[in-house]
Amino acid sequence: MDALTVKNVSKRYTNHTALDSVSITIPEQSIYGLLGPNGAGKTTLIRIINQIINSDGGEISIFGERLSPKHVEIIGYLPEERGLYKKMKIGDQLLYLAQLKGLSRSDAHARIKTWLDKFEIRDWWNKKVEDLSKGMAQKVQFISTVMHEPKLIILDEPFSGFDPVNAQLITEQILGLKERGSTIIFSTHRMETVESLCDHIALINKSKKILEGPKKQVKAQYKTNTFIVEHRGNHFTLPLEKYEIVKQEILEDDLYSTTLKVADNIKGNQVIREIIDLTEVHSFQEKIPSMADIFISLVKGEGDEALRKHLLEV
Amino acid sequence: MNKIWLIIQREFLNRVMKKSFLITTILVPLIFPAIIGGLIYVAVKEEKSAKPNLVQVLDESKKINFEDTKTFIFQPLNTSLEEAKKTYNLSKDFALLYIPDFDINKPEGMVLYTKENPSIEKVGDLESYIQNKLHDLKLKEYQIDEATLKSLRPRVSLKQFNISDTGEEKSSNSGILYGLGFGLGILIYMFVLIYGIQIMQGVIDEKSSKVVEIIVSSVKPFQLMLGKIIGIASVGLLQFTIWIILITVLSSGTLAYFGLKMPQKQMMEQMTKQMDNNPEVKEAMNQQNSMINEVLGNISEIPIGKIVFVFIFYFLGGYLLYGALFAAVGSAVDSQQEAQQFQFPITLPLLIGYMGLFMFILRDPHGPVSFWLSVIPFTSPVAMVGRIAFGVPDWQLAVSMILLIGGFLLTTWIAGRIYRVGILMTGTKINYKVLAKWFMTKV
C-alpha cells in the first residue's frame, strides 16, 4: 500500500497558481525527497497534506483512506519556519502538543520522557524555550514532530540550524523511525541529504511536477553512458563512430583524465576491453549524474538535448 | 471539542500560573485603596497642622468687620497704602489686603498683594469671606434677619416612585441608579478593552514565534481562535471575581474599622448632647435618619438578581463580540506597533458606547439615543448595563440580547475567515482591501 497518493491537486490564488494538477505517489516506509526551487509550490503542497489549507481540486489518500481531519494524528509536521511557545516550559509544551495530536496525558508523558532520554536532555523539562540556543530549540522541535510516532512524517529542511554532530543524531533518529515503519517526506534544497537519505524523489518546478520516481531509476534515466578513465600515456585512438572524447586533462606529468562518451549499446566492460591495450589504465568509472546536476539542469528549463549536454559537461 | 478544551486549558493556566497574574490580582485591590487612603491621610494631616495665614488689612471703607477664621488671621492697619506696602514687604506675612472706600452695590478696587503666587483655593477662600461679609451688610441694609432669610429658602427633597403598568408603586432613587449604571458600564468597558488586547497580543505572539503553523496542523484555526478567546475570558472572570471579593472584604473591613465604628460613636455622643439643648439639630437628625432609611429601602427595591444576570450576559456577549475582532487584528499584523492602526477602528464603537453612557444614558435613560445605543450590538454591552437599573422594558432587553448574540456570531464568523488566512501570512502590507480579500478567499 502507498503511504500517500496525491492526484491532480491544484491550488490557485488570485494572482498566481501555486500548484497545477500535481500528482505524486509516496510508497510506504520510504524516505521521499520533495525537491524544488524556492516558490515552486512545495510548502503549499505540504500545507495541503497537513490540512492547514484546502486544495481547489484533486484527491489525496493516506494509507488507502481519503484524507480527513482525523488523520492529523498520524502525521508529524516540522515546518521550515520553526516555532515554539517562548515562555512555556519544554515539558509542558511537549505535553500540550502531544495531546493536540491525540495522545492521552499519561501516554504523552511517558513518550516525551523517552525522547528526552534519547537526546540526553532529560533535565530540560522545566527550562523555557527562550533560555535555549537555536540548536537546542531545534531538538525540542524535532521531538515535538515525532513523539507520537506518526506513520507519516513531513520534514521541511530538517537539518537547518544543526551542527554536524546533531545532524548525525537526527539522521540516525530518522532512519530509526523508518525502520519502525514510518514514511518520511523530506522537503529540502540540500542535495547531499537527498543523495544519502532519499530513496524516492519528486521535483516540483513552477507549480508543476516535472520528475518523480525511485532515486536510482531517475539517475539511470539521466545517465549519458559516459566514463572517466585515468591513464598514463596520452595517445590512444578509438573507433570514432563509437567513442567520443569529451574532455581530456593532465593530472600529473604523464597522468591524464579522459572523459569518454560511448554509444548507447556499448557496456562498460567492452570499453575496458577496448582501452586496456591502448594505455596504462589507473582507474575507470562510470559517470553518474548527481541529484544536484539533474536538479539544476531541469530547473533551468533546458530541453532534453541541452540537458544531456549539460550533464556531460559538469 | 476535546482539542478546544486543551487550548482553553493552556491559555488559562499559562496566564494564571504566572507570577505577574498573582501580583496584579492581589495588589490591584490593595494598591488603589492604599494610595487613596494615603493621600487622604496626608491631606487631612496637612490641613490639621496648617497654621492660619496672616493677612494685613488696610480697610479704608471701615465697613467690614474682620474676624479671624481657621485659615486667616486679620491684622488691621491704619496707614497709607504706600506705607502698608513697605511694612508688608519687610514682614513675613501671607498677604496684604487693600480695601478702598466702596459702594456696596458695586464693590470695586479691592486688591490683594502677595509675595508669591498664592493658591487659587486661598484666594477663593478670601473672596468668599469678603462676599459673605458684604452679604451680611446688605441683609442689614434691607433689615432682614437670619431667621427670616432661612425661612425664605425651605429645603425640598422629592420622594420618587415608579408606577408600573399594574399600578404598583415602587420608590426609586436616581442617584443610586446613576451610580450603579456608571459603575457597571465602566466595568464592562474596561473588561472588554483589557482582555480584548490580551487576545490580540496572544495571537501576535503565536504568529511571530511561528508556533501557529504547528498548532494548525493539529487543530482548525477557528478552534484555536475560539479556544484562545474563551481561555482568556476565564482568566478575566477569575481575576474580576477575586477583585470583587477582595475589594468587598477589604472595604467593608476598613469601613467597619474606621468609617462606622469610631466616628459614629463620637458623633452619637456629640449629637445626643446637642439634641438635648437644640431642637433644630434634633429635627435635622430625624430628617437625616429618614433619608438613610429611604436610600436603604431603595437599594432593596432594585432588582439585583435581574441586574446581575443582565450584567453577566452583556459582560460575556460584549467580550466575545470584540474578542473575535481583536483576534482578527492580531492575526493580520506582524507586530504590536502595526496593530495600532487597526486597533482604533474596532475600539471606536466601544468608546462611543462609553461616551454615550455619560452623555445620554445616565442623563436620559429612556430617550431615543439611549434606546439605540443599548440595542445596537457594538454599543449595547456598555449602554444596556448602564441603563438596566433605570428599568428597561422587557421587549427592548430581548431585542438587544438577540442582536448581541447575532452580533457576536457575525463578528466571530468574519474574524474567523480573516484569522485563518492571516496567521499564515507574514510580511504582507496590510490594508482593508487585503483584509477583504482574505475574507473572500477559499482556504
Your description of this structure?
The complex is a heterodimer of chains A (314) and B (443). Chain A has 314 residues and is α/β, with parallel strands linked by helices. Helix content of chain A is 33%, strand content 30%. Chain A has 10 helices and 14 strands. In chain A, a hairpin with a 2-residue loop joins strand 4 (57-62) and strand 5. In chain A, 35% of the residues are buried. Chain B has 443 residues and is α/β, with parallel strands linked by helices. Chain B has 2 domains: 51-152, Periplasmic binding protein-like II (D-Maltodextrin-Binding Protein, domain 2, 3-Layer(aba) Sandwich), CATH 3.40.190.10; 181-440, no CATH class. Chain A binds chain B through residues 13-14, 47, 50-54, 56, 69, 72, 75, 77, 79, 81-88, 96-97, 99-101, 144, and chain B through 3, 6, 10, 14, 205-206, 209-220, 424, 437, 441-443.
> Any low-confidence stretches of chain A, pLDDT <50, length ≥5?
none
Mean of residue pLDDT values of chain B: 82
How would you classify the helix and strand content of chain A by structural class? alpha/beta
What is the element string of chain B, with H for helices and E for strands? HHEEHEEHHEEHHHHHHHHHH
Reported for the largest beta sheet of chain B, the result is: 4 strands, mixed
Q: Which class do the helix and strand fractions of chain B yield?
A: alpha/beta
- Number-wise, the strands of chain A total 14
Low-confidence stretches of chain B: 260-264
CATH fold-level label of the largest domain in chain A: Rossmann fold
Helix content of chain B: over 70%
The total number of structural domains of chain B is 2
Give the neighbour order of strands across the main sheet of chain A.
6-7-8-3-9-10
Shape of chain A: elongated
Identify the overall geometry of chain B. Answer: elongated
Radius of gyration of chain A: 24 Å
Largest sheet of chain B, order of strands side by side?
A: 2-1-3-4
The quaternary structure here is: heterodimer
What is the alpha-carbon Rg of chain B in Å?
31 Å
β-sheet strand percentage of chain A: 25-35%
Number of helices of chain B: 15
